[in-house]
């Protein structure tokens, strides 16, 4: 019986006081409003308002419809606005190519989910090729990386810095040195994550510039196994300082700086249009606060 056009017309009459003012403000003709009112009166079998009164005085039936319009139309408007908003932020997909980052990342994600339970948070480990293009295509929403580049469509938010260190067993002979030189690894088994060496900082920033290679590269799937192998004397590894702190505090391993020290930084890469979104800022702040505590 009642249609939205009827509710909008009745609300307009109540607000503007006459058919002429209502028509002007709703941008429809007076004849169209009169037609709607007559149609509605036929449907309800009664009169909506008293004729020849200024401002319009509604009958009891008309007042019921006006009150209904005041309740329903704001709800419909709010729903329309909600449905018209982009839904991309309902999903939040993180991508990371840093195996050891899981030590701080997973607790951070848990804290983030406590604040944004409405978001469907997903985590991808191990970048596919061209992560920036995947970010711009909307396949991922945030990438955590230490490799940044200047470009206008991606914004890199700083997270925190860390030192890359050589990790060895507590009784390893290299413990006698104040720092590690590239040539020191020529007789060592270097334990690494299962990624190409050309993506490793220890290779690009330490070994390659001095044209050095370890005695052997040996890939290990996860940080816990890798550190246990280091502790057992099966090789050495180059890892961020946060990844080895627990083992080092238990005197299971020891660490030495690589050369004069290799300082790296992690960044969150996001689309420029998303860099000010509340949940992006919140995730960044949580990471800065909790990542290495």
UniProtKB/TrEMBL annotation:
<dbReference type="InterPro" id="IPR000847">
    <property type="entry name" value="LysR_HTH_N"/>
</dbReference>
<comment type="similarity">
    <text>Belongs to the LysR transcriptional regulatory family.</text>
</comment>
<keyword id="KW-0805">Transcription regulation</keyword>
<dbReference type="Pfam" id="PF00126">
    <property type="entry name" value="HTH_1"/>
</dbReference>
<keyword id="KW-0804">Transcription</keyword>
<dbReference type="Pfam" id="PF03466">
    <property type="entry name" value="LysR_substrate"/>
</dbReference>
<keyword id="KW-0028">Amino-acid biosynthesis</keyword>
<dbReference type="GO" id="GO:0003700">
    <property type="term" value="F:DNA-binding transcription factor activity"/>
</dbReference>
<dbReference type="InterPro" id="IPR037406">
    <property type="entry name" value="MetR_PBP2"/>
</dbReference>
<dbReference type="GO" id="GO:0009086">
    <property type="term" value="P:methionine biosynthetic process"/>
</dbReference>
<dbReference type="InterPro" id="IPR005119">
    <property type="entry name" value="LysR_subst-bd"/>
</dbReference>
<keyword id="KW-0486">Methionine biosynthesis</keyword>
<feature type="domain" description="HTH lysR-type">
    <location>
        <begin position="2"/>
        <end position="59"/>
    </location>
</feature>
<keyword id="KW-0010">Activator</keyword>
<dbReference type="InterPro" id="IPR036390">
    <property type="entry name" value="WH_DNA-bd_sf"/>
</dbReference>
<dbReference type="InterPro" id="IPR036388">
    <property type="entry name" value="WH-like_DNA-bd_sf"/>
</dbReference>
<keyword id="KW-0678">Repressor</keyword>
<keyword id="KW-0963">Cytoplasm</keyword>
<keyword id="KW-0238">DNA-binding</keyword>
<dbReference type="GO" id="GO:0000976">
    <property type="term" value="F:transcription cis-regulatory region binding"/>
</dbReference>
<protein>
    <recommendedName>
        <fullName>HTH-type transcriptional regulator MetR</fullName>
    </recommendedName>
</protein>
<dbReference type="GO" id="GO:0005737">
    <property type="term" value="C:cytoplasm"/>
</dbReference>
């Amino acid at each position: 019986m009642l249609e939205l056009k009827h509710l909008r017309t009745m609300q307009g009459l109540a607000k503007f006081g006459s058919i002429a003012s209502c028509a002007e403000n709703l941008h429809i003709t007076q004849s169209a409003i009169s037609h709607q009112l007559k149609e509605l009166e036929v449907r309800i079998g009664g009169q909506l308002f008293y004729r020849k009164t200024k401002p319009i005085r509604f009958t009891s039936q008309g007042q019921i419809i006006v009150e209904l319009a005041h309740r329903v139309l704001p709800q419909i408007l709010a729903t329309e606005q909600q449905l018209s908003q982009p839904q991309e932020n309902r999903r939040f997909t993180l991508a990371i190519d840093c195996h050891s980052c899981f030590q701080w990342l997973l607790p951070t994600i848990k804290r983030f989910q406590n604040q944004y339970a409405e978001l469907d948070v997903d985590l991808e480990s191990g970048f596919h090729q061209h992560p920036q293009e995947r970010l711009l295509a909307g396949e991922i929403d945030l990438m955590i990386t230490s490799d940044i580049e200047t470009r206008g469509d991606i914004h890199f938010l700083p997270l925190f810095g860390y030192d890359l260190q050589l990790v060895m067993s507590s009784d390893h002979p290299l413990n006698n040195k104040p720092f590690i030189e590239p040539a020191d690894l020529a007789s060592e088994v270097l334990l690494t994550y299962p990624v190409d060496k050309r993506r490793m900082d220890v290779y690009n920033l330490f070994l390659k510039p001095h044209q050095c290679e370890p005695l052997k590269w040996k890939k290990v799937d996860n940080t816990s196994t890798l550190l246990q192998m280091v502790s057992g004397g099966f090789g050495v590894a180059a890892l961020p300082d946060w990844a080895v702190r627990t083992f080092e505090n238990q005197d299971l391993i020891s660490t030495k700086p690589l050369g004069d020290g290799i300082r790296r930084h992690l960044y969150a890469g996001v689309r420029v249009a998303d860099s000010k979104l509340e949940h992006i800022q919140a995730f960044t702040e949580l990471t800065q606060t909790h990542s290495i505590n």
